[in-house]
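Appendix B. Chain record.
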Amino acid sequence: MRRPAASLLVLTALAGCQLHLAAQYDPTLDQGLSTTYQDIDALLSGIAGGTPSCDQSGAALAAGAVADAAAAAQGTRGTPVLTTTAYASVSATYDKIDSALNTLELRAEAQPMNSDTSTALAKVKDSFDRLRQRHQAGTLDIGHAQDEYCILRADFRVLTQMELAKKR
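Structure tokens predicted for this chain:
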């Protein structure tokens, strides 16, 4: 008779507990992803000379078309055309995005069972840091900026899908 009473007590205690096998949806992280992507979109569209067309895999369609047209106009076809957007004119935007990515990464790491999101955000951060370094060094060409735009767009799409899937 003691076992059924003990089992009932355990079941009653567990009835009030929630078992989570995956990270919970975080509306702040979801909104942060949207806001940060908007800032990246604006930055890279400006640097790339317009919003590139991207396929679903994150590759730029007709990558370098803007650069090729600029090279033809300058008589330098075949030579990568560096972006005309000076790093100094957008360094504050880079700082803002970098800070937002750090915050999103920290928020994702703080949530239990959220390693996939944390890993994906770390990848985005690394990609963004390399882009920034290249721009700062004066070696960012338009074709590369277009490609990075498409890659980051695909990465943010995956991150958003991952977060929205947690809502279900």
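Further analysis of this model is presented in Appendix C.
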